[in-house]
Design brief:
Order of helices and strands: HHHHHHHHHHHHHHHHHHEE
Main location: membrane
Organism: Streptomyces cathayae
Keywords: Antibiotic resistance, Cell membrane, Membrane, Transmembrane, Transmembrane helix, Transport
Distance between the termini: 10 Å
Strand content: under 5%
Largest sheet: 2 strands, antiparallel
Subcellular location: Cell membrane
Strand order of the largest sheet: 1-2
Membrane topology: Multi-pass membrane protein
Structural class: mainly alpha
Length: 561
């Protein structure tokens, strides 16, 4: 292809030529793997933590939720801070904080210390996550190569999410629960010096002062919204519905003020003009819808495998592995699919394929159907990762390079918000269908039916307490009601996915790539144009990535590659 872009070639050399940028990708993927594993590794350790530390109900909730809650609320703060002070600097500080917090968590002797350590882990994760994507955006300025890098990055994320529970289960069989945190420390001790040596420093234009007030306002608003959404998934009018509503209103108000503040400032924390670009705003919406439709469903599916089919936690994790492998395959094939079909068709196809998988899973019943589950989970993993890959790649490519940290933070925040809303929405749908199915079970007191209507897990406990024919009847009714609720939830999820497919039609039809000026070839570029850039893309004096001015190009064109 003689249309290889001169501008992209020069920028590749500026960001790091040859193998160096791929080494950078390995370092960034290691960072992501640690954060992804830590997000799920604690799930299997909760029973052991409960037995050892004896936390109260609220303390246990904060042990589990403080990490994702704090991480989600601080993504924009640290993403934009990295654009100002240096993305590598923020990333390395996140490494150090993550390692220290892991040590504190592993040695915690009470619930309060463990909660504090999980909060610090959330702060470290918020530093690491947007920095990895924004550095990736910097070192892969060519969109074709960046698509491949994002595919590897997303495949690693899928691996981390799946490895977490399995690794946690293995460690708990041989060591105490603190070992699930100790594994982070040696990896961070290696990542710090390696990252300091290999990762290029980069930052945005840095014009004007950093909006500290706006950053804190965004963090507080997101914290309130995410907390309210999490509480909404399990709150009722009797146990905190009013406080949940107040938390959501306060968070929405803070975010509204934040948006108005950014529009008025000459140098905003987040350039909201990015949302005026249809590809950027549509990509963010697709990320939210994809997570909204599927995260709550994933939790419900895990309950189905354990409480309806009677599988152990390890067997449940193994049953879900095909979903992870399919997601990895989609991530690695994503760059080729994007070049062949373009963002619009790729994301739309991903949504439709996922909807087909969800509808296929409505065939799940009270009996184990391995073939159905395998087929459904494979299609689900491939479709979901295809959707998220296309959406993330389009979002990062539409964002200006100087706003890479802010754009990455917006994408990760959208992911977290979609996941939280999905748990609340699909959980509410599930409960609305499940609870009425337990009324009027013969031989079961009304109080027992009410208690069992809270969840299938509680139904198992109540049935065990009742015993005899009444307990068996209650458990049978609970399983049937759960399966019926699961089917309804799957249909709602399919509807949300089809809505996402319609939204994806606003994405660009083809990859938006720079092309050289008409008639210009790489030979037209003076030889001295490239001699000022070292082969590793770093200035010898400062170790910083060098911005090379690209030759003036013709108007950007949509090039199907």
């Amino acid at each position: 292809m003689s249309g290889t872009t001169t501008a992209a070639a020069l920028r590749r050399r500026a960001a790091g030529a040859g193998a160096n940028r791929w080494v950078v990708l390995v370092v960034l993927c290691t960072s992501l793997l640690l954060v992804a594993v830590d997000a799920t590794v604690l799930h299997v350790a909760v029973p052991a933590v409960t037995e050892d530390l004896r936390p109260g109900g609220m303390e246990l909730l904060w042990i589990v939720d403080s990490y994702p809650l704090v991480c989600a609320s601080l993504l924009i703060l640290f993403g934009t801070l990295g654009d100002r002070v240096g993305r590598r600097r923020v990333l390395l500080l996140g490494y150090a904080l993550f390692g220290v917090a892991s040590g504190i968590a592993a040695l915690a002797d009470n619930a309060q210390v463990l909660i504090a350590a999980r909060v610090l882990l959330g702060v470290g994760g918020a530093m690491i996550m947007p920095a990895t994507l924004s550095i990736l955006r910097q070192v892969f300025p060519d969109r074709r190569e960046r698509a491949l890098a994002i595919g590897v990055w997303s495949a690693v994320a899928a691996v981390g999410a799946a490895v977490g529970p399995l690794l946690g289960g293995f460690l708990l069989e041989h060591f105490w629960w603190g070992s699930v945190f100790l594994i982070n420390i040696p990896l961070m001790l290696v990542s710090l010096p390696v990252g300091r040596i290999l990762l290029p420093e980069s930052k945005g234009e840095g014009s004007g002062p950093w909006d500290v007030v706006g950053a804190l306002m965004a963090a507080a608003g997101l914290f309130a919204v995410v907390l309210g959404v999490k509480r909404l998934g399990g709150a009722s009018a009797a146990d905190g519905g009013v406080w949940t509503a107040l938390t959501l209103v306060a968070g929405a108000a803070l975010l509204s003020v934040f948006v108005r503040r950014q529009r008025r400032r000459a140098h905003p924390l987040v350039d909201l003009r990015m949302f005026a670009r249809p590809a950027f705003s549509t990509s963010v919406g697709c990320i939210v819808l994809a997570m909204l439709a599927l995260v709550g469903l994933e939790l419900i599916a895990a309950q189905y495998l354990q409480l309806v089919l009677g599988l152990s936690p390890l067997e449940t994790g193994l049953r879900l592995l095909p979903l992870t492998f399919a997601a990895m395959a989609a991530g690695l094939a994503g760059a080729r699919l994007l070049r062949r079909f373009g963002p619009r068709r790729m994301v739309c196809f991903g949504f439709c394929l996922t909807a087909v998988a969800v509808l296929l899973l409505t065939g799940m019943g009270g009996q184990d159907n391995r073939t159905l589950l395998l087929s459904g989970f494979v299609l689900l993993g491939f479709g979901l990762e295809t959707t998220l890959f296309g959406a993330y790649e389009s979002m990062l490519s539409e964002a200006p390079p100087e706003q890479a940290g802010g754009a990455a933070a917006i994408g990760e925040t959208s992911y977290q918000l979609g996941a939280g809303i999905g748990i609340a929405l699909l959980g509410s749908v599930m409960n609305a269908v499940y609870a009425p199915g337990l009324t009027g079970v013969p031989g079961v007191p009304a109080s027992a039916s009410t208690a069992a209507g809270h969840s299938l897990g509680e139904a198992h406990q109540v049935a065990a307490q009742l015993g005899g024919p009444a307990g068996a009847a209650l458990l049978d009714a609970a399983r049937h009601a759960f399966v019926h609720g699961l089917h309804v939830t799957l249909l709602v999820s399919a509807g949300l996915l089809l809505l996402g497919a319609a939204m994806a039609l606003w994405l660009p039809r083809a990859m938006h790539c720079e092309t050289a000026t008409a008639g210009e070839t790489p030979a037209d570029v003076p030889a001295e144009a490239s001699t000022d850039v070292p082969a590793d893309g770093l200035s010898e004096a400062s170790g910083k990535a060098v911005d090379v001015p690209a030759p003036r190009a013709a108007a950007d064109s949509h090039v199907p590659v």
